[in-house]
Amino acid sequence: QCSSTCFSFGDCCEDYSSVCGAQDPNSCSGKCGNAHNRKLPCQCNVGCEKYKNCCKDYASTCKASGSGSGRPSTSGAGRPSTSGSNTNGVSDAELVNLFEGLLSKDTNNVADLLILNTGCTTRVGNPRDCSTHPLFSSVDTSIFRKPIYRKLRAVYDNYNEDVTVVEDRTRTERQEEDAFLDEVMQSTTMKTALDFLKSKKLFNKSNTEFKKFIGELWFALYSRGNRILGSSGFEHVFLGEKKAGKVQGFHNWVYFYHLENLGHWEAKKLGFKGTGLSFTFKWGDEQKPYASMLIGTSPEFELALYTTCLLAR
Questions:
Q1: Mean pLDDT calculated for residue range 195-203
Q2: Which end of the chain has fewer surrounding CB within 10 Å, N or C?
């Protein structure tokens, strides 16, 4: 047969791919290292082994050739190093200077509007709560009238923390994501980060394409097992997830305050220093033995920080 369904039934003509230009969606041929594509039934990058959604020929086609690593394409940029070396021309000192500059000019940083009760010092994974008071003892609620925080909180009810439940991403939810991204992209913080990435040739496309890239990187759904599209980078980092009785991700102070304010958990703190907090907490019946997050930093700062680190390292 010479139709798109022949791949599913295994009855394609021998020259179907070469003559008709079609690719088998169940094969890694020509797709090694490609970014996750939720429309495909299987994947062909290093993440597929972790999430158990590799195509059947991933090992023979991609691993054998050493071409299985992949991230969303930045088109024209050399592949960023993941080892922390400076092979891409960006030094650790340059990244430190960038992030310190972004932090000093983070106009939506609200650390001075928060008062924390860090409580006791405990050990990793201690199940006994020795900090009986809420972490946030005082929060100026004018924070949540700021557009970036208002739009961040608008997406909270779009997600189910259970990674075994398929996320639906309705039209309304996508519009809320887009409104949040628009706010992020127009910030000086993200514009400065993009200028840096372009200057280092880590991203060579237009500003419009950068927003598209950020949207795919953070909001595209992927599977954490059994090909269930129940997770995204944004949900993992800025909210949190549960899998097999364990809390995963969860690195944002705004969502922690949101749930604490609703009375959804108790927190046991390990210690607090500067703008960073390390602690252990219990979310429902599940406890995260060791957690860490920045406190008071803006959503655009954290997205700029994490995205730049991904591309540079």
A1: 95
A2: N
